[in-house]
Amino acid sequence: MNEGNGAVSVEDVRHVADLANLELTEEELPRMAKDLNAVLGYIAQMNELDTSAVEPMAQVGQALGLKPAVGGETLREDVVKDSVDRGTVMAAAPESDGRFFKVPKVIER
Amino acid sequence: MTERTAKQGKAMAGKEQGVRMADGLHSSIDRISLVEARAAVVEGRVSAAALAEEHYERIAKVDPEIHSFLALTRERAMTQAEKVDTAVKAGDPVGPLAGVPVGIKDVLTVKGVATTAGSKILEGYRPPYDATVVRRLEAAGAILLGKLNCDEFAMGSSNENSAYGPVKNPRALDRVPGGSSGGSAAAVAAGLCVASLGTDTGGSIRQPAAFCGVVGVLPTYGRVSRYGLIAFASSLDRVGPFARSVEDAAVMLEVLAGPDEMDTTSSREAVGGYAAELGKGVEGLRIGVPEEYFGEGLNPEIRAAIEKSLDGLRVAGCSIHKVSLPHTRYAVPTYYVIATAEASSNLSRFDGVRFGLRSEEAGTLAAMFRKTRDEGFGAEVKRRILLGTYVLSAGYYDAYYRKAQQVRALLTRDFVEAFDTVDAIVAPVTPTPAFKLGEKTDDPLQMYLEDIYSVAASLAGICGMSVPCGETTEGLPIGVQVLGRHFNEATMLRVGAAVEKQGISNRN
After folding, report:
1. Of A24, B189, B284, B335, which is the most exposed, with the fewest CB atoms less than 10 Å away?
2. Do the Cβ atoms of A51 and B126 come within 8 Å?
């Protein structure tokens, strides 16, 4: 992958697509490279700001120092309750034996 | 609401059975408010079943052109309507949304009903559970008419990214309704449901509300449960209502808001009596106007309409103050790092194993993942997954993701400091009115810049809303954005109601 702020190449896109489990066609690759470069170029504006002393913000509640119950960090009681019906869930699977999800063979012998 | 006594009189004359809905109402079906619809049902002037039926007839007539609904839930609607009508007849207490026909954005699950998120990858998926917001609406007596079209996985600002075809703006059929909750805004504007649910990650409620001329509310982050929302960017996603008036939206929000044990990110902060608080008016409130939102690129007609709204607020007893949100210009870059990074992670669950589409082509598991995702995702979703994966990948995390989280903290601080001196902020929602279908589809960056006035509030987690405040000379709706402190929807809605009043008097 290219270093620093150079342009994203078609090879880079191929690599990222691989990481993301996306299969892109040969026609899609250069188009995506062009789009990513345009957007990343715009995103680079963030570098105008000195943020060395700023704590990164992952969640709103954390950034505001809210109490957990207000900031949305509460856990419910750990009690067993009815869950969704297994049969309903399995029926929605593309392939299932009713108990397990079936997928193509993972290990070749 | 304009009273149409002639129609009321006709209702009094009375047909014994099968009373037509319109006979029992003061307003025409495409304009009726939530409050009026409920009153008509509760007072027995019209049945919930007839009201729902009338809406289905209108959907059948109007929606082939608009394309706001992706699925209709007639059976469920009629069962629920019967329940409401039985309760009304028996004199039992009914909920605040009794008999009110609503639509649900198709990123929210409804048990047993096709839920696609506007994507091919979920074609045929029927969720095994209801989203909490859907449960709450029905518990309050609402009649769920169907699922509403949207950009694929809520990614888009024009509804043109729906795998099932775009929605048209009911106010101008050659224009987009906005996005991503385009169907939710268009259905309310076209008179196909009285209120609806949308979701807003970077502007997806406020922008389509502005484009279609309806009210759209973005509640504070954590205010409304997200259980049953198909996740796009979890630190940003919110659910909120669309309605025809601020009062209607306030009633909806009251039903939706509050903690949910199924969503640990929902807040336990007390919920206000939003509709009742509207009566307090706005006298003495301090309104902030951020100069950064009125710079170059803002359509002059939108600027003029917002200035008129500010004049109205002044007359209503508000004081107007300049405020500064100095990091505003970094909001869009920051948003597109954080939102895509989170999306790349959230959308990894779509792999063809447990639900939805599975590619027929693949012989191995790895190929099945890739081919399913290739066939199932549209171009914009792939683009955002790629961008999100890129900014999170080895060697880039600090430069992009961590940096964006730091700038997000600065953007949030901007708002917190501004709200030290003002009670609400008034700004444009969008730089332009609704643009033409196809106008921006070839240039993703241009489309992203559409979000320039909406994403900062999303990143900061504050509440916001869009209220109609006028029209362009071409007759396109203009929305004004009202932003409020974290968990202070009540004040925001009061300001929204005052702006709405001004907007209505502008039209007359």
Report:
1. B284
2. no
